[in-house]
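User: Some background: our group keeps a shared notebook of sequences we're curious about, and every so often someone picks one and asks for a predicted structure to add to the entry. Today it's my turn. The entry only has the sequence so far, pasted here. Could you supply the structure so I can complete it?
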Amino acid sequence: MRRLLPCMALLLVACSAGSNVQEGLVTTLEGQQISLQELTRGKPAIINFWASWCSFCKEEMPQLQAVSNQFEDIAVVGVNLQEDQAVARAYVEEGGYTFVSLLDPAEELKKQFGVFTQPTTFVLDAEGNELHRKDGPFTSEELLQWVEEIRSVSSSPHVEDSVEEPDSETSPVTGPLTLWFKDSVRHSIPLDAIVFGGPQKDEVPAIDSPTFVDASLATTELDSLRGLFVSIDGDARFYPFAILNWHEVVNDTVGGVPIAVTYCPLCAAAVVYERTTSNGEDTFGVTGLLYQSNLLLYDRKTQTFWNQIRGEAVVGPLTGEKLTRVKSEIVSLSTVKESWPHAKVLSTDTGFVRRYDLDPYEGYDEAESLLFPVDVVDERLRSKRIVYGVVVDGMAKAYTQDAVQDEGRLQDTIGSVPILIQYDAQTERVRFTRFFPGTEKKEELLPLHTFWFAWVAQYPDTDLFE
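Assistant: Of course. Here's the predicted structure to add to the notebook entry:
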């Protein structure tokens, strides 16, 4: 979500993707079978047929990416024309294109749409009816006109003043959940509120075998990189957002504690949990599905979905369980090098080919629009304003990052509970402490760093520190 420096000096090792595309199947670039209808159902769509060697396609791809970034209500889908999986995938990753591109090895989609050249672009309404076809390159003016047209006839997401979390119940599975569960499933969130985020299961691959380098080896050009810092029993580790943007989950063990470092780029929600459930130690992956624009994790043993912001199981056998939070800090690499010189930094040697020097969500934190709908919109703050949110005795309250950093020390109450908030500019650490009146007891709270819209979507009755 943040602008990254043009190069990352940490070791980057490319791994070649194996080709496992079955003849005749429409697949993602990762080789997983999928249908075009799954990606466009209920949304207007722009379908672009492209090839990596096509000069016009090279000009169009950044424009399509811009539409995908800006308009969550439009499905942007690329279809590669008869190139090898490795070639198409390398081209997409090199360009940092995050909208879905498909492989069409048996020319199924090519024949369906009657494509004879590249690029060819189709504009469909939400019912799948063809509105426009362009053989050859489109102009930026044409693309803008198409976007305005299909957005003018598509319905806006329904916005309510509040949202209530239903009690746990069991319902028949529908839509994307049919790929995960049979017949019916236990859940605590509305199943129809779960939306497809674009990537399929594990196409945003969690890092299960992280490697690290000494913080002292990172060059000064990288000092401004920000990320999550965790220290347990003297074992200090830093996880740059530049890497988490592409993986969202790192399954690691720090100080002997099995943890899951999680980050949702759509929400700027950064939180660390112990990766232990009622089934024991587990690992977590990325479903590719979203709830309130927030990523849904899944555990590998039971395939239960977990709300990343709340750390709560919301769909599947473990529904209702909660993960244990692990204390973490959001700091810059320069602070880590100065305050914890012996810390380890997550290496770009992840086993995956990703452009860690590029931010796939660059500019999203400045845009007011959201890529995916939420049930609650609260205009007390700009939607992408960073806040620290806490819940005390069932009452939620948010504090803007600016207020915390500008004041340095804040005294407040949540309900009748006294709260002290402290910010150390040297270490970039934020401390929330609750006090128990009439006693010497106090307790450190673990705030959640996220966008305002994401906090309100999860806690619609939240108070806001003024």
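Suggested note for the entry: The chain has three domains: 27-153, 169-346, 386-464. Residues 27-153 form a domain with the Glutaredoxin fold (CATH 3.40.30.10).
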